[in-house]
Amino acid sequence: xVQLVEAGGILVQPGGSLRLSCAASGFTFSSYDMHWVRxxxxxxxxxxxxxxxxxxxxxxxNSVQGRFTISRDNSKNTLYLQMANLRAxxxxxxxxxxxxxxxxxxxxxxxxx
Amino acid sequence: xxxxxxxxSASASLGSSVKLTCALSSGHxxxxxxxxxxxxxxxxxxxxxxxxxxxxxxxxxxxxRFSGSSSGADRYLTISDLQSEDEADYYCETWDxxxxxFGGGTKLTVL
Lengths: 113, 111
Fold this sequence. Notes:
The complex is a heterodimer.
Chain A: E1 3-7, E2 11-12, E3 18-25, E4 34-39, E5 45-51, E6 58-60, E7 68-73, E8 78-83, E9 92-98, E10 107-111
Parallel strand pairs in A: 2-10
Antiparallel strand pairs in A: 1-3, 3-8, 4-5, 4-9, 5-6, 7-8, 9-10
Chain B: E1 4-6, E2 9-12, E3 18-24, E4 33-38, E5 45-50, E6 56-58, E7 66-71, E8 74-79, E9 88-95, E10 100-102, E11 106-110
Parallel strand pairs in B: 2-11
Antiparallel strand pairs in B: 1-3, 3-8, 4-5, 4-9, 5-6, 7-8, 9-10, 9-11
């Protein structure tokens, strides 16, 4: 069974930093591009970032470019999102998703003072 | 970058059928899309990939009541024999080499 399990979401102050992780199992993690997608309260889905299967190539939405860093450790089957200089508008559920269309259950990040 | 347009809401009666639409922007009519379902309070769930030809490939465990079709730049999701558990938000999605692009979602109400 494929599982994507996110962790790391908490309440953080504006300007703060946070690292999310996503542990993958049930498929060959190293063969697939991986993505972070977020959903603000009551809103739709928004692409955040993507990383190639080998970790060499990364992409970011304009809204997070320069503040967020995506990475992966294929030896640990784990995806990461390092988030810095957080803003109130970054408040959302962050989902890990695979290029073969699996979704995690999400982790809530709240940016508030 | 492609833009996907969905109606914000739809409704249909229990046991009936409904057809949801996702329109691809001009110049992107050949793109493959995916449909995802998001039940209230849950994570999205992949339903199917849908090609320009109308052929589709469903995810594991997706009921036969769910089907897809295409016409030009429009992509459709048809749900037959509506059940109460089909009440959800439905998102279409496409992608290019750099990112994933989502439609705004359609909130389906089962009456």
